[in-house]
């Protein structure tokens, strides 16, 4: 998947881009270690393909392309096998892809009738193509998308069915416990204070740190506490990938003494407690110097238990809907919309900051909302005909039905509102938060989750009421994204985003962290490549949603519903004429 750089100045932990660095013990933090995405397996079937062969049926192949975010270039991702003589293929070869909720992955499926052994696709007959996003497949009912094949004018090209299945190994966690015997004594006045460091190997031969145990003081025969780690973090789902374990003697000044190391793999560890899981701890320097060197002690696996975690995709597959609501700041501090200096300026040639933020976030979230109808609200304006100030008005002018169709419908209603309302004030967030909270409070069974996007210039007037609204909303199935546009200081917004200090109101703390704030200016691409900078913005504001969603479900003890039964293609019975 296309790796996105994190913009400077963003405090959020995220997946690091580029090659993993060699791990060092001192600076390890569980949050900053890069955990690979979950993986999904795509299965492809077609029905009623075009028949391009004169004397028999087509021999189809499917070729999958992914699109680079920056330059929009399509790159071949992989090909299925060729199935001879059928217009209704169920391809056996699957496509395994990394899946990130917060990124938009555009896909193109091309179909060809293979006429020779040549790998060059131009030598074969084109049967049509289908465009979609990975989110569209995952977000469809039962994670099964059926779409018409297009691309040959005037011809019906048939349909394609793509099904997504999350790979099981990505959802497993293991609970492991280790002990050691007769480790080398490293401290002059006492015994060692040992701890273990686990590192997974990368494709380029380097290692990434993935777990560090606690220190057990003053012993050469420590028993460490059991710890839990995801299989993704431990070996990226590759059971035979090398896992290196280093043994250190802890020192207060951070210059921990290396005792020795050993290597293993997930497959070896999964044998559990046995003679295969007693490891000699080897110090290569000592081994090179001393002829009689045997080892620096042994480490033994005491227990190994696999637990399967429920994932965000389990809920989506079971039918949970993500409801997306937009709230836009129409206060006078944004500037007169007819002036180019205004944050609401309607430039005929490019989107303003409000439009860009709406589109970037909305285009990803809409894949998870089956009816694609989004309530769009405004706040801080005087409304016609009587000029009353409103802090939750429908952008489409219909308070009984504030829904807009798709993100394009939201954009249209936003532009229409700008022409009819008068920007005013003050900037009150609490009414729109309470508006969404009322809906969220009515469905707490896990069938729906609400995401509110507030786009604002950030000068908030009702801080106390907003904090109270957020603390109350933290008990509900909802998350709040705030995008701050313009040059203001956003200190108040940073306070609402409870990453450093959990937000509280009247002595009550928020049950969960549900607010994610980003300043739009951190994403303005100096080179003018708005596509890339908006992809980064969407990635950063949406990255926390799956974990916030899961934290609500866990606290409430809500399990995902079973997915609908898998699709079984109809069997075509050949009619024989008598």
TrEMBL record:
Residues 323-524 form the VWFA domain. GO terms for cellular component: plasma membrane. GO terms for molecular function: calcium-dependent phospholipid binding; metal ion binding. Keywords: Calcium, Metal-binding, Phosphoprotein, Repeat. PROSITE patterns: C2, VWFA. Gene3D superfamilies: C2 domain. Transmembrane segments: none annotated. Residues 20-147, 156-279 form the C2 domain. It holds the Pfam family Copine. PANTHER family: COPINE (PTHR10857), COPINE-8 (PTHR10857:SF133). Probable calcium-dependent phospholipid-binding protein that may play a role in calcium-mediated intracellular processes. This is Copine-8. It comes from Formicarius rufipectus. The gene is Cpne8.
């Amino acid at each position: 998947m296309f790796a996105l750089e994190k913009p400077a100045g963003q405090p959020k932990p995220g997946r690091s881009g580029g090659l993993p660095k060699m791990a060092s013990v001192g600076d390890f933090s569980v949050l900053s270690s890069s955990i690979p995405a979950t993986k999904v397996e795509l299965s492809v079937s077609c029905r009623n393909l075009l028949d391009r062969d004169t004397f028999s049926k087509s021999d189809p192949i499917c070729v999958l392309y992914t699109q680079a975010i920056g330059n929009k270039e399509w790159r071949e991702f992989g090909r299925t096998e060729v199935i001879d003589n059928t217009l209704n293929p169920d391809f056996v070869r699957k496509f395994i892809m990394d899946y990130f909720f917060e990124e938009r992955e555009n896909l193109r499926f091309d179909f060809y009738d293979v006429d020779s052994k040549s790998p060059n696709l131009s030598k074969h007959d084109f049967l049509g193509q289908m465009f979609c996003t990975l989110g569209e497949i995952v977000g469809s009912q039962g994670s099964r998308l059926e779409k018409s094949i297009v691309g040959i004018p005037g011809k019906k090209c048939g349909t394609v069915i793509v099904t997504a299945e999350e790979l099981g190994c990505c959802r497993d966690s293991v609970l492991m416990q280790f002990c050691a015997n007769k480790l080398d004594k490293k401290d002059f006045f006492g015994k060692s204070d040992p701890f273990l460091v686990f590192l997974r190997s990368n494709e380029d031969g380097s290692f990434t740190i993935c777990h560090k145990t606690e220190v057990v003081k003053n012993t050469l025969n420590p028993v460490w506490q059991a710890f839990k780690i995801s299989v993704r973090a431990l070996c990226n789902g590759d059971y035979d990938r090398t896992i290196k374990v280093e043994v250190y003697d802890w020192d207060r000044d951070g210059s921990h003494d290396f005792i020795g190391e050993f290597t293993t793999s997930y497959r070896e560890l999964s044998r559990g407690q046995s003679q295969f899981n007693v490891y000699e701890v080897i110090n290569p320097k000592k081994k090179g110097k001393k002829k009689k060197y045997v080892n620096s002690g042994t480490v033994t696996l005491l227990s190994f238990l696999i637990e399967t975690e429920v994932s965000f995709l389990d809920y989506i597959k079971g039918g949970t809907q993500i409801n997306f609501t937009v709230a836009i700041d129409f206060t006078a501090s944004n500037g007169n919309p007819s002036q180019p200096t205004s944050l609401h300026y309607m430039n005929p040639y490019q989107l303003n900051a409000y439009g860009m933020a709406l589109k970037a976030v909305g285009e990803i979230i809409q894949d998870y909302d089956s009816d694609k109808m989004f309530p769009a609200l405004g706040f801080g304006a005087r409304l016609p005909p009587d000029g009353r100030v409103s802090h939750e008005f429908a952008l489409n002018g219909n308070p009984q039905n504030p829904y807009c169709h798709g993100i394009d419908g939201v954009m249209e209603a936003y532009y229409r509102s700008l022409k009819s309302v008068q920007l005013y004030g003050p900037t009150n967030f609490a009414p729109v938060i309470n508006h969404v909270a009322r809906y969220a409070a009515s469905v707490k069974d896990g069938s729906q989750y609400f995401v509110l996007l507030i786009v604002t210039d950030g000068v908030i007037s009702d801080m106390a009421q907003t904090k109270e609204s957020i603390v109350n909303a933290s008990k509900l199935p909802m998350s709040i994204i705030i995008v701050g546009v313009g040059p203001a200081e956003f200190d108040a917004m940073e306070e609402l985003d409870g990453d450093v200090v959990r937000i509280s109101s009247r002595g009550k703390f928020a049950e969960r962290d549900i607010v994610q704030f980003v300043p739009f200016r951190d994403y303005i691409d100096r080179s003018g490549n708005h596509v890339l900078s908006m992809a980064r913005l969407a990635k950063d504001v949406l990255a926390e949603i799956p974990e916030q969603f899961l934290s609500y479900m866990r606290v409430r003890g809500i399990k995902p519903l079973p997915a609908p039964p898998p699709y079984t293609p109809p069997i075509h019975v050949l009619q024989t004429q008598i």
